[in-house]
Amino acid sequence: MHVAVVAGETSGDQLGSGVLASLRGLVGDLRITGVGGSAMAAQGLESLHAMEDISLMGLDGVTEKVCKAIRIRNALFKTFLDDPPDVFLGIDIPDFNISLEQKLKAHRIPTAHLVSPTVWAWRSYRIRKIRKAVDRMLVLFPFEETFYRSHGVSAKFVGHPAADEIDQITRKQAREKLAGEGLQVDRTTIALLPGSRRSEIDKLGRLFLDTAERITQADSQIQFILPVASTAVVEQLRELVDEHKGGSNVCLTEQNARLAIAAADVGLIASGTAALEAALLVRPIVVAYKVSRLSYLLARLFARVRHVSMPNHLTEEPMVKEFLQGDANVDNLNGEIQRLLTDCLYRRQIEHAFQGLAGMLRNNANDEIAKELVYMTD
Predict the structure, then answer these.
(1) Which of 40, 68, 281, 282 is buried deepest, with most CB atoms within 10 A?
(2) 120-to-280, 307, 371 alpha-carbon distances in Å
(3) Taking the model in full, what pTM does it have?
(4) Which domains does the chain have, with CATH numbers?
């Protein structure tokens, strides 16, 4: 079986590696070509281009990045026409993959896309292009399947790999694993996750540390854990913590963010995957996010939903307080965190709402995706 797969970010590479491992278990003899990183390479991917060359993160040299990505997309299209795969799997990066999928589908190569773009939240006009491009949309959340089917797109809820991987580890167990890095087992702990990209840390890193300082003024025994999301931002975070006068009770860790969240009583988190993982771990959180003024205005213009963090789309009622743009300030963040720490009834209501999420999303996702890909080749 010849599978073509394209991922443009580390998260997609990791997601793809699990899928390919399950696929190999199903079909045995597997040939994999496309674009990916070290995780998919370990599963036998022959990467035809560097994954970094199709990622458009950041604005530095954006014109050159876009031109290079377009050249690579055209080259991949020609390669896959000359040597057609049995099925093509695009993982995330919708601006790159969906255009490629549309061309491949027009030449009768079966196309699947994993990780839905948030068309249900904003820029819903993209659904027309998706309908032309994708034979099967593989989605991580049940409501996405309903949305796509109502718009005439074949979709399948496959489950969320994070739900399959989440261990319901106790706070004490997580803190004991982090004790070697300076975390105290018996102290109230707050996880700080300002994001994985430099731009996010630029906007939120100092704010989160200022909030930590305000919290410390009220209770000097509270400690903070700040996981390093990637090697690219290690120095940036170290410098922020070192220059911050309240940084002495902030523990930097290069262990995974999931462990840091599990160790915490409360999380202060940038909207993103970490917010979902906190909900899966049943940890109350506060979400803050800032983007450029233009990006925010465009989001407001095209948005179809009121909330930005995924847990608020999965629970019956929104349970996560979100502070965006100017509302993301020390007074608001400190006030909500203090409420989560001191109001037991409020905290229990949130934890109760989060209890069922892991079960809702747990579905042996990698195996389900692999089965769908095999089914598409029949």
Answers:
(1) 40
(2) 22, 12, 26
(3) 0.86
(4) 2-159+363-377 (3.40.50.2000), 165-360 (3.40.50.2000)
